[in-house]
TrEMBL record:
Protein name per the record: HNH endonuclease 5 domain-containing protein
Species, as recorded: Roseomonas acroporae
The HNH endonuclease domain, residue ranges: 44-95
Lineage: superkingdom: Bacteria
InterPro entries: HNH_5
Taxonomic placement: Bacteria, Pseudomonadati, Pseudomonadota, Alphaproteobacteria, Acetobacterales
Length: 327
């Protein structure tokens, strides 16, 4: 632990002083965990309705299957809310995270997502074959920049259209699924906000999402979910955070509570990101990089570029203008 950067040690001390973290969930293949008792009549924590006014026939994913979740479900999301989220905010969250899920080799319902040039005409594509990445470009339209010396290939992926605040609601929804039943009373308005298909409503004045990118080869079948709640007697920081790590990315989002966050109204927040355990090999891949994402925009974002860098051990060319790379 002694070789951790000073900022990481300071951030760990900050969170330890201000927050109590719940036991993290380490989600791995083969594991099955259903949150909430299966007792009848069931109650939906999202819309507040009970059986038989609402039904609970579908298996409700506690986080979308797109992140590789095949084992974490909940008993307290009704079918109507499940469909509302699945057709709305989870699509926006899916589009926002898709480039990262591809690069991290995260298997959703239909495998690792392929990313290709938008539009109907032929063009570049990035897909994962199961053993390595297959990168395709056309001679008249070079897409990849290859550096044999550093063994890196650089390119720019594009993001499918998404509404930032809808993606944000999708993230907050995962946190609100995981919080203990006793905490839900503090988040009534937050539940209403994530269910509201009108994305124009402003909810929290400050809404930081910390994104940490961990470079290097990371497991693509481990998801770590963690909740943090402010310690009693502390009032200068947001009440609750939710942290979600998958592949090469860690996302940390504020779970706003109208009643519990009154004490930070009008104050400018200054928080470090929750420290991540670090990279597999910092000398080779560099240190984790933290950015603060602003996902409060209400207008659709179209054609956003996402820069990507692959390191490779070996590369084989196949057919003219095709390249196959082991990432
Ligand atoms: Zn419901």
């Amino acid at each position: 632990m002694t070789d951790l950067p000073a900022a990481t040690i300071a951030a760990a001390a900050f969170y330890d002083r201000h927050y109590a973290g719940a036991e993290p969930i380490f989600l791995q293949p083969g594991m099955k965990l259903t949150l909430g008792s299966g007792e009848r009549p069931r109650h939906c924590r999202f819309c507040g309705k009970d059986e038989p006014a609402v039904t609970f026939k579908d298996e409700a994913h506690a986080l979308p299957a797109a992140f590789g979740n095949t084992g974490l479900f909940s008993n307290y999301e009704c079918d109507a809310c499940n469909h509302l989220f699945g057709e709305g905010i989870e699509n926006h969250l899916g589009n926002w995270t898709k480039p990262m899920r591809t690069l991290s080799r995260i298997r959703g319902r239909s495998g690792v997502p392929t990313i290709k040039k938008p539009g109907p005409e032929k063009g570049w594509r990035v897909e994962y074959s199961g053993t390595g990445f297959r990168l395709k470009e056309y001679e008249d339209e070079p897409f990849f920049e290859l550096d044999d010396e550093t063994k890196q290939v650089r390119f720019q992926l594009h993001r499918d259209t998404y509404i930032p605040v809808a993606a944000l609601k999708g993230l907050v929804k995962i946190g609100l699924t995981l919080i203990p039943e006793a905490e839900t009373q503090h988040f009534r308005e937050t539940y209403e906000w994530i269910r509201d298909p009108d994305h124009a409503r402003n909810f929290a004045a400050q809404f930081p999402v910390f994104r940490t990118f961990i470079p290097g080869p990371m497991r693509n079948d481990l998801i770590v979910l963690m909740l943090m709640r402010r310690r009693t007697g502390i009032d200068a920081v947001p009440y609750a955070f939710f942290t979600f790590a998958y592949g090469n990315e860690v996302l940390q989002v504020f779970l706003p509570s109208i009643s519990q966050d009154k004490c930070i109204d009008g104050k400018t927040l200054s928080l470090p990101a929750f420290p991540t355990p670090g990279t597999p090999d910092p000398a080779r891949y560099g240190l984790p990089r933290v950015t603060v994402e602003n996902l409060t925009g209400r207008e659709p974002v179209k054609g956003e570029k996402v820069p990507a860098v692959f390191g490779f051990d070996s590369m084989a060319e196949s057919e003219p203008a095709d390249a196959k790379g082991e990432a």
